[in-house]
Amino acid sequence: MDMTDNVCIEVREVYKRYKSAQEDSLSDVSLDVVQSDVFGLLGPNGAGKTTLISILCGIIPVSSGNVRFFGNGTPYSDYERKSRVGFVPQEYAFYQELTPRQNLDYFGAMYNLSKTRLEERREHLLEVLGLEKAGDKKVGTFSGGMKRRVNLAIGIIHEPDILFLDEPTVGVDVQSRNAIIRYLQQLNEGGTTIIYTSHHMSEAEEFCKNIALIDHGKVIAAGDLQALKTAHGVDNLQTLFINLTGEEYRD
Ligand SMILES: Nc1ncnc2c1ncn2[C@@H]1O[C@H](COP(=O)(O)OP(=O)(O)OP(=O)(O)O)[C@@H](O)[C@H]1O
């Protein structure tokens, strides 16, 4: 990281043990995410990625440690954190019985957007995510790719500065995957900081500037993706991943 980079998320010595668990799901996790980064949280099944994203989004508490958010070097208030951070969860977070327009109106209202602003955002997102024609059909009838795009639209209805995505392209076809990643790239070019998880190594390799590789709740490698590949003498992310996390199944 460059000294001039503006840290927007600071994670320090975070531990997490779920109530029913015998072991820590996160153990001594420290990370910095800089403004306008595309940051990949990568690791095998059960590594702790969803746990970490859930903590960063304020959905579950840490057992110990700290997470702080900054905008231009100043810590966010709770209000700023809510209005400037967006989250696209792995599970679908919409009402299947409602249409995309109705879902976007419902979730947009939670952010206190004005009626005009909400309409503008809703129609913009339906258009750029290729959902215009399906805008008044029940989401429950949609393909996986369309549902993923609705999930994404809901998470960004309030135009967040910092966006978390937990496997945003899981289970979709190549067209939807490309549309989602292209759109996220555009958001990032416009200044949105993106933190995302994926099991799709070639997608992550193209998309991420920095990564943290997590295994058994610990950060085992972090930093600039290109520099990590060079340091470990590998030419692709998948080989780096296998070299650092091993070949065994994680069931
Ligand atoms: N609510 C919970 N209660 C108890 N243990 C949990 C809970 N949620 C997750 N865990 C455990 O915490 C560890 C980390 O899980 P987590 O879902 O964060 O991993 P992940 O890296 O997101 O995995 P995946 O790639 O499969 O989504 C796992 O051992 C999991 O079994």
UniProtKB/TrEMBL annotation:
Superkingdom of the source species: Bacteria
Molecular functions (GO terms): ATP binding
Record keywords, A-Z: ATP-binding, Nucleotide-binding
The keyword Glycoprotein belongs to this UniProt entry's keyword annotation: no
Presence of keyword Nucleotidyltransferase: no
SMART domains (UniProt xref): AAA
ABC transporter domain residues: 9-241
Matches recorded under Gene3D superfamilies: P-loop containing nucleotide triphosphate hydrolases
Database matches in InterPro entries: AAA+_ATPase (IPR003593), ABC_transporter-like_ATP-bd (IPR003439), ABC_transporter-like_CS (IPR017871), P-loop_NTPase (IPR027417)
The protein's name: ABC transporter ATP-binding protein
Any Pfam family matching the protein: ABC_tran
